[in-house]
Design a protein that fits this description.
The protein is of the alpha/beta class and about 400 residues long. The chain has 2 domains: about 30-270, Type I PLP-dependent aspartate aminotransferase-like (Major domain) (Aspartate Aminotransferase, domain 2, 3-Layer(aba) Sandwich); about 270-400, Aspartate Aminotransferase, domain 1. Strand 2, helix 4 and strand 3 (about 115-120) form a beta-alpha-beta unit. It is globular and about 70 Å long. The strands form 3 sheets. It has a 7-stranded mixed beta sheet, sandwiched between helices. The protein is about 35% helix and about 15% strand.
Length: about 400
Amino acid sequence: MAPDGQVLTREYDPAKAPDVHASEPIPEAARAEIERLLASGDLFRYTAPEGAPVALLEAEFAEVLGARYALAVSSCSAALFLALKALDLPRGAKVLIPAFTFAAVPSSIVHAECVPVLVEVGENYRVDMDDFAAKLQDGDAVMISHMRGHTSDMDAIMALCDARGIPVIEDAAHSLGTTWHGRNIGTIGRVGCFSFQSYKMINAGEGGIMITDDPEIAARAVIMSGAYEQNWKKHPGLQNSYCQWQNKLPLYNLRMQNLSAAVIRPQLPALQDRVAKGRAGHDRVADVLNACEGLSVPAPLPAEARAPDSIQFNLAHDWTDAQALAFQAAAKARGVTVQIFGLSEGNARAFWNWEFLGPAPDLPKTRAMLMRACDVRLPTRLTDAELDFIAHAIAEAAQAVMGGGRKI
């Protein structure tokens, strides 16, 4: 910033902008394991009697998160679906979700023959607790999305749900490494579900995993994931429960295969370093954006320690749609792609685009937030110089829209 508060003007060459869409590189150890697997042909998790890469991943991930059981599957969406089925919810059960989430979340509920109930979300991207409490009176379960890693008030949510005996599933697709009062997100509800899609903290292209401390949920999920005939014997413990549920539950065949596990496992030791880099990078960019009039980055809740690999910020309420789109174009001209959730055609995070649910509900708070909420990827591999490029490009784009004479 210049002494008078103006953002320093600089020339931006879009060709020199950091590539925020490239995924984390695959570690050399993973490549060696992939070559071994390809030579052996043992890509199916149940080929080996024990020690398959998927089984090793489950044990290692459970230890990292501090959970009793983990089940690796084809995607986080698959994990969410299996979690609902493992809870044995009745057909038509009402499942509360934040209205700010990805379309896969309500889709998993529809697949499980349940009914999504959308809850208002505020300007800080977190669940509106008044709306949550009101709708919980008629709810059967909760699937709380920590969307883009932003954690809602889990103390209040769990207190309300525990008082009514309502199970909570945590959609922690964006929250691997985030903690709440020092406790890993994903271990607070009955089930936690994570993603290994390329734009997440650990990159396997696709893949997901669910964790739980409940042995019956774990056993049911293992059978339904596709542990047919005697393959459940290749999962540790719970043998009596597996015997009870074998052939009594449908098989959805949502298994993870060994190649994905081989890519994921060498990245687990790098998790905490990526979390630290992601938090530092996010805060470095947030400091610049929060100094700009017209832009604001919501602060974390006191109990929350985020593990971000992106940044979200809001445009001022008094900006028109035309100004918001002009800002987006100005940032793009400087080499930075800014997604405005509510102004991106067909955006899968805008609830009114979930036409498979029927007519969109009236959610004015969430709609207003989405119309001015912006999203920029910040991979943990970015250097300080690259982070500064992004931050100042965004700041100057805002200044261009508001007028060069405005102090931002």
